[in-house]
Design a protein that fits this description.
There is one protein chain. The protein is mainly alpha-helical and about 140 residues long. It has six helices and two strands. It has one domain: Winged helix-like DNA-binding domain superfamily/Winged helix DNA-binding domain (Arc Repressor Mutant, subunit A). Helices cover about 65% and strands about 5% of the residues. Strands 1-2 form a two-stranded antiparallel sheet. Helix 3 packs across helix 4. The radius of gyration is 17 Å and the shape is globular.
Length: about 140
């Protein structure tokens, strides 16, 4: 009866979104995962953020965030600067190369999102969004 289990459907949908998105990124020959895209987007929206905050926003553990940040740093998409308040921490910023990549990625990501929502009316999208937010709040 897994097809009737809402949690199963939510998880399956999330997996299909990631899989579809990754296949599109691969088709564009981008050496980037969907998860790494989310890190870049988080840095774009929060210039100077640290790894701990990225993990909190994306609900990812420290080792996972650390690996992604290392890859993005080694690829030249982000730079790390010593935090002005806590010298043990690094603040993370996009490089010019990272900003250029995001400029290329944004329309691709938008197409991915539109594909998944294409047969949903604006009202259905709003209802789905409202329901998912309620579920999230129930789990705090």
């Amino acid at each position: 009866m897994s097809e009737m289990n809402l949690y199963y459907q939510i998880e399956l949908t999330a997996r299909k979104i990631r899989h579809y998105g990754q296949s599109i990124l691969n088709d564009h020959n981008l050496n980037l995962t969907i998860e790494q895209w989310l890190v870049l987007k988080t840095v774009l929206e929060n210039e100077g953020i640290n790894q701990i905050k990225i993990g909190e926003i994306l609900i990812k553990d420290k080792p996972t965030i650390s690996r992604m940040v290392k890859h993005l740093f080694n690829s030249g998409y982000i730079e790390k600067r010593n935090d002005k308040v806590d010298m043990r921490q690094f603040s993370i910023y996009l490089t010019k190369k990272g900003k250029k990549l995001l400029d290329e990625l944004l329309p691709i990501i938008e197409d991915i999102r539109l594909q998944g929502l294409q047969n949903l009316s604006k009202n259905e999208q709003k209802s789905l969004n409202d329901i998912l937010i309620k579920i999230q709040k129930n789990l705090i």
